[in-house]
Amino acid sequence: MEIIYYLYGIICLSRSTDVHYIAFCKNPIDKMWYNYNDTNVEAVNNLENDVLDNGIPVALFYQIYII
């Protein structure tokens, strides 16, 4: 039996002085990551850099496959 973890979402606490959350989610159709920040949605070029530059990860969302 093998367990595979597939990351598809991250919620980050913003590094700004206000309490603010940012979401990073992977689109299952085009397989690209997007940054959701209030009313703005932007494609993510480098997930690791964008997450760490914009906030502190507080929740990770995984899909788990058992093979």
Strand order of the largest sheet: 4-3-2-1-5
What is the overall pLDDT average? Answer: 91
Order of helices and strands: EEEEHE
- Count of beta strands: 5
Total DSSP helices? 1
Count of all domains: 1
Largest sheet: 5 strands, antiparallel
Low-confidence stretches: none
Query: What percent of residues adopt helix (DSSP H or I)?
Result: 10-25%
The radius of gyration over CA amounts to 13 Å
The end-to-end span amounts to: 6 Å
Structural class category:
mainly beta
Tell me the overall shape. Answer: globular
Q: Kindly estimate the percentage of residues that lie in beta strands according to DSSP.
A: over 45%
Layout of helices and strands:
Layout: E1 3-14, E2 21-26, E3 33-37, E4 40-43, H1 47-54, E5 55-66
Antiparallel strand pairs: 1-2, 1-5, 2-3, 3-4
Descriptive notes:
The chain is mainly beta and 67 residues long. The chain has one domain (3-35, 43-60). Helices cover 12% and strands 58% of the residues. It contains one helix and five strands, in the order E-E-E-E-H-E. The chain has one helix at residues 47-54; strands at 3-14, 21-26, 33-37, 40-43, 55-66. Strands 4-3-2-1-5 form a five-stranded antiparallel beta sheet. The radius of gyration is 13 Å and the shape is globular.
Task: Give the tags.
mainly beta
Short description:
The protein has 67 residues and is mostly beta strands. It contains 1 helix and 5 strands; from the N terminus they run ββββαβ.
